[in-house]
Design goal:
Layout lengths: L12 H12 L9 H17 L4 H15 L18 E6 L2 E8 L2 E4 L2 E3 L2 H7 L12 H8 L18
């Protein structure tokens, strides 16, 4: 039986529930209708025959599944922004490379331990995305999201691992 050519109309609701359980390893939710049973079984057969979802797609779906399991509307939870200890964040600004090491509790930047990335950004000129210019022209450029030298602002939060 292949998913693209399978006609589930000849299967009873009980048969579809059995196929779901066999295919997915768990019984379907009690109130799932015929259409979703057919789609679930067909998707499983199709993914088995042609391959499942790629890693990126699975990672995008995982928070939605977690929302559903916790009774929330899918997509309403904020994504976790936790960084694994040992990660090094690297940012280039004004021809200088800045590195921040992620710890269990805090960050190491220029040999000092900080509580947050925001704290580092506030105390490090240029890393908070501001131009640090006292001229009116500089303030106007800042208001438009650009530094006085014409380069776009890139705050510390845009660091990449």
């Amino acid at each position: 039986m292949t998913a693209p050519t399978t006609n589930f109309s000849n299967f009873s609701l009980s048969d579809l529930r059995g196929l779901w359980t066999k295919a997915l390893g768990n019984p379907p939710p009690p109130r799932v209708g015929r259409e979703l049973l057919e789609l679930g079984v067909a998707w499983h057969l199709q993914s088995k025959a042609h391959g499942g979802l790629d890693r990126v797609t699975r990672e995008q779906i995982a928070p939605l599944v977690q929302d559903l399991r916790s009774g929330k509307e899918p997509g309403t939870s904020q994504p976790s922004q936790e960084l694994d200890p040992g990660t090094t964040l690297i940012r280039e600004w004004n021809n200088k490379t800045y590195q921040v090491q992620v710890l269990d509790k805090g960050y190491v930047f220029e040999g000092k331990v900080w509580r947050s990335l925001s704290e580092i950004a506030e105390r490090s000129p240029g890393l908070d995305g501001t131009a640090h210019s006292s001229s009116a022209s500089g303030r106007r450029q800042q208001a438009r999201g650009r530094r006085p030298d014409g380069y776009p602002e890139t705050p510390l939060c845009d660091l990449h691992a």
